[in-house]
Amino acid sequence: MGDSVSQPLPDEARWARLTDRQRACLDLLLERQTSKQIARQLDISKPTVDQRLTAARGILGAANRDEAAMIYLRLKQTYDRVIYDPVQVPSMAGDMRSGMSDATSADAMVLKDSAAASAEAPSRMIWRHDHDLKTRMLIMAVMLIVAVILILAGLGIAEALTRLFSG
C-alpha cells in the first residue's frame, strides 16, 4: 500500500510547472505590488491575478504570498539564468562599431532617455507606498494648498469676468 501523503516536488519540477503567466504575476509580487497593481500592469482582472497566485502558491508549496515570493525568488535565481556559450561571447578588449554615425547615435540616446522618462507616471514618483505617514501628510497638505489657490484664482477670474460683462 502506497503512502497517501504527497511528497513536495523537487525544485526543478516546481520551476518547470509554473506557467509564464504565473511567473509574470510572481515577478510583480517580488516588487511588493498588490493584486490590484499587478492586474493593472498586466491588463487583467484582480480575480485572475489572485487565481494565478493561488495556483502558483500550490505549485510552490507556499502557505502565503510572502512565502511564495521567497520560494519563487530562490528558484528564479537558480533556474532562470541566461545560458551562453563562452566561445561566442565577444571579448571587451576592443571597441565595437555600430554602423551608425555619431550624430544619429546621440539623437537615438536622447530619444531613448525621453521615452524612458515618460513611461513612469508622474504620480507614481510622488505618491509611493513606501512613504511614511509624515511624508504622506505633507504631500496631502501641499495638494490641499494648491487646490485652495486654484479655487481662489478661479473665483477671482469669475469675478473679473462678471464685472467686465456687467459694465
Structural features, described:
Helices cover 68% and strands 0% of the residues. It has eight helices and no strands. The protein has helices at 11-17, 20-30, 35-42, 46-60, 65-79, 102-119, 122-126, 133-166. Helix 4 (46-60) packs across helix 5. Residues 1-5 and 105-117 have low confidence and may be disordered.
Key attributes of the depicted protein:
8 helices; 0% strand; 167 residues; disordered N terminus; mainly alpha
Instruction: Report, as a whole number of angstroms, the end-to-end distance.
Output: 101 Å
Main sheet summary? none
How would you name the oligomeric state of the polypeptide chains in this document?
single chain
Computed structural class? mainly alpha
Mean pLDDT: 78
From the alpha carbons, calculate the radius of gyration and give it in angstroms: 27 Å
How much helical structure, as a percent, in the residues? 55-70%
Number of helices: 8
